[in-house]
Amino acid sequence: MEWKLSRILIVEDDETILFALRSALGRNGYEVSAAGSLEEAGCAAQNPPDLILLDLGLPDGEGMTLLKACREAGGPPVIILTARDDEADIIKGLDAGADDYVTKPFKLGILLSRIRAALRRAGEKDGEPGREETQLLTCGDVVLDKKRTRVSVGGRETVLTAGEYRLLEILLENKNRTLTRTLLLERLWDIDGDFVNSNTLTVLIKRLREKLGGDPQRIIHTVRGIGYKAEETPFQTADWRSAAGKPAICGRDENE
Ligand code: CA
Fold first, then answer.
1. What CA–CA distance (Å, rounded) separates 14 from 12?
2. Quick one: 15 and 57 in the same domain?
């Protein structure tokens, strides 16, 4: 496969942030273009980027407008750059199809790792890896085999209900990406038309975590006030089953 620089479009009207991002991304091997408004972003999109970093408050409108247009057109992944504590905006953005979000002020290392993850997911979608490969979804010692509709934890098969299986499948298909409760409810609702309410989701998450074993946050992380994400944590590299006979901790779900 031909190797090329990934192109990132930064849509940001704060010149200080823009300058810092531009040089940092350039130093890290990305080809960068910038737009300070929705209008400029429209022009820049003529030469489609591989990823967009999107500020929500722009001088000529809401970044959300661009996000929606981008999703309708099947555009590149979008990472929202937003001020801290704008929980409502983050939820709106993720529900509108943003791939991820980073709150300002952000650490460059974190932003770079989010960018790499979003580009990797987009590349996996485009590159359509072999069928066998896409049949196995993994996170730590959890393996979901789509072909056989089976789940194993640490090599041992775990029996899940249809709802638990579907929930795990959605989370693993979007590994390292925060999914809002609304989005999860919509996707779960799709299966067979049964209405899944917020309480059902909480119960499903709790049961699924119990079946996956260990610390409840081991595979399925609670993103406070927003939703959930499947992510590998350093913790799980240790064998939690033999962790000094420590009982599984069943913590409260912070989203309740
Ligand atoms: Ca702004």
1. 6
2. yes
Tokens of 122: 């987009």
- Residue at which a domain ends, from 90, 107, 125: 125
Rounded Cα distance, 159 and 157, in Å: 7
State the distance from the centre of ligand 1 to the C-alpha of 12, rounded, in angstroms: 6
In a domain, 52, yes or no: yes
- DSSP character at residue 224: T
Interval between CA 105 and ligand 1 midpoint (Å): 13
pLDDT block averages, 10 residues each, the chain of length 256: 72 92 86 92 83 94 92 90 80 91 88 90 63 71 88 89 92 92 82 69 94 90 94 57 40 47
Identify the H or E element spanning 123. Answer: helix 108-127
Is the pTM of the predicted complex or chain greater than 0.85?
no
